[in-house]
Description:
mainly alpha
Amino acid sequence: FVPVSFLLFNGGDLIGRTIAGYVDTSNVLLTKRLLSFSSLARFAFFPLFLLCNVDKTRLPVVFHHDAFPVCFMLLFAVSNGLTSTVCMMLGPSLVKTSEQEMAGNIMVFSLSSGLFAGSLLSFVCLKIGTGVW
């Protein structure tokens, strides 16, 4: 399932980033509200993944079929690509013109740092989960 989920996430992320090219960001207030909602709504995926038929020893299984984690992963990936790309498109326009380049650089640095920290944390979680430290 790991290679499939890796491919599925990256494909869904690409779809979300492609869809973001068609989002109209001219209404900044509406776009900011939608981004805030979509960012907070993504926290709903944590319990959804935990209640899938993956590890029966920790939580009760609510979603027994194997299609559920696949669908959840695809939705999570599309929302990830869409939300992050619209944020990157909208962010520099929210500051003064003289500060837009710096804002873009800070956003790219923050995104890259977050991805790096997340990849390091995955190794720590893997070590803790397998009991091999």
